[in-house]
Design a protein that fits this description.
Blueprint lengths: L6 E5 L10 H8 L3 E3 L10 H14 L4 E6 L1 H11 L6 E7 L7 H4 L6 H4 L10 E5 L8 H11 L2 E4 L16 H11 L3
Helix pairs in contact: 2-3
Length: about 180
């Protein structure tokens, strides 16, 4: 499927994605992409974030691809789990953090992100892109999550948290992985 046939809904994580983050750059580069803006990026509430995503999905006029980063991957997965399947074409989830990781526990995050995370396959084609040296999740956690959610796993190598701070501003490799996913739907 071509990007022009889809709505690419970008779902940032905690504190949103700054202007140098690949999600904001993709929003500028891809004509059918837009960032889903949350009311409060710094104090995420699961119910609010998921409701905002579901509202954006409902307003979409084309099939949707949810592109979530970090905590946004959890919110996107929960929205998929609660949405009519026909509306969502695919999921592209990048660097989901491990809620049990001490670095993640140091953030003030609504525990519902973990408690209400889907516990079965999402029933949409998709991929989790994970790094071998992400401080917020071991690669083995991403492997287990991909298996649980029924998604493919893409090994990004030693890529940190796959954000601007780890050198992933434009992230052309990510666009290539996204194109690979879209070629399968």
């Amino acid at each position: 499927m071509r990007i022009s046939d889809l709505e690419l809904l970008l779902v940032p994580g905690l504190d949103g994605s700054g202007p140098d983050h690949w999600q904001r750059r993709w929003e500028q580069k891809l004509p059918t992409a837009r960032v889903i803006e949350q009311a409060d990026w710094s104090n995420p509430r699961h119910e609010d974030w998921v409701a905002t995503i579901k509202r954006e999905i409902a307003q979409a006029t084309r099939p949707v691809v949810l592109i979530g980063h970090s905590l946004g991957a959890y919110a996107a997965a929960a929205a998929i789990d609660e949405t009519t399947r026909g509306k969502i074409a695919a999921a592209f989830l990048v660097a989901p953090p491990d809620p049990g990781n001490p670095a993640v526990r140091s953030f003030t995050i609504d525990p519902a992100f973990k408690e209400k995370a889907p516990q079965a396959a999402l029933q949409v084609p998709g991929v989790i892109v994970a790094s071998r040296n992400d401080a917020l999740a071991d690669f083995s956690f991403a492997e287990r999550l991909a298996l649980l959610w029924g998604l493919d796993l893409a090994d990004a190598g030693d890529a940190g948290h796959i954000n601007a701070e780890s050198g992933h501003g434009p992230w052309p490799e990510g666009l290539m992985r996204l194109a690979g996913l879209l070629s399968k739907i």
